[in-house]
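Side project, low priority. Logging it here so it doesn't get lost.
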Amino acid sequence: MSRYLVTGGAGFIGSHVVDALLLAGHEVRILDSLQPRVHPRGKPAYVPEDAEFIQGDVRDEHAMARSMKGMDGIFHLAAYQDYMPDFSTFLHVNAVSPALLIELIVRERLGIEKIVFASTQAVYGEGEYLCGEHGVFHPGPRPLDQLKEGRWETLCPQCGREAEWQLTGETAVSPYTAYAISKYCSELAFLNLGRRYGIPAVGLRYSITQGPRNSFYNAYSGVCRIFSQRILSGARPIVFEDGKQLRDYINVEDVVRANLLAMEAGEADYRIFNVGGGKAINVIEFLDALAGAFGEAAEPVLSGEFRYGDTRHTVSDISALRGLGWEPAVSLKESLERYVSWLLKQPDARSIRYVEADREMRERGVIRKGSAG
């Protein structure tokens, strides 16, 4: 039996990791700030009494030192996630906290044996593409003028032709959103400082994660939340761009298994792994699957709008983690059915919160009109 700290342990992924650790017989301590945009009603009822709970911020030295004392390992899953342009908050929470965590381990000689930390496929930016004439390239963000004209596909920077998306492995890093930049900073801190001071660390770059407890209060919780609330309210879901943008989706239970494997496997030390669903799915297909989980059809609104900063196609190559014996086990259909079953039991599920979030993102220039909008 080991003793583990789970930062962000009241959150979506963190709470499921807590449950799995307790089920395996470990002692668990949670550090969570209960950020109001995610937890407006305070500590969720699903946080188990068997886990010690400390309310505190990962940027707070005293809270961090207290929570790490006596622990064998750490799952660092706390993060700031949002679409709002409060750039400094991303860096303060997501980049400073890893540095503080390593600093305290070294300074206080805390004896932490290993750290598993959460990152994101967002660090890849637009990922990897292939031009038939000019080969593989890693593009920057799609130009704003191009998006305003409703030309969605990524173009070869040399010939201007549409390029073919590729599975993105762990090496094609090009973060350009505040969130992605901050998470890549966290990777550099954990892996490089960890190696320097002999503290093994493993980073997991999650694809879009689905499942129960994914907060429907926070706009960042994504397309599943937004589509679900529009379906529940009888409104047609709005699909950005043309709905053909590709993503891969992973169930939270598969993410939990990846976390536990990363902690246990010595061959994972000081490495980064993609954790994804292994299948490319476009937004229209995703909406159809989600509507099916609700037992109805959903006709999307293709408004020609786009969300500035979104990537066109992002699908992760998961072969490295497969090499450690991990495999995604929960299908998208089953994952969405579990989410919808949980959502319909929530007393606030039918509240139309997407309206306020949508308006705020439009006012701040996150959602913009293309030529078809």
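Brief comment: The chain has a mean pLDDT of 94.
Revisit when time allows.
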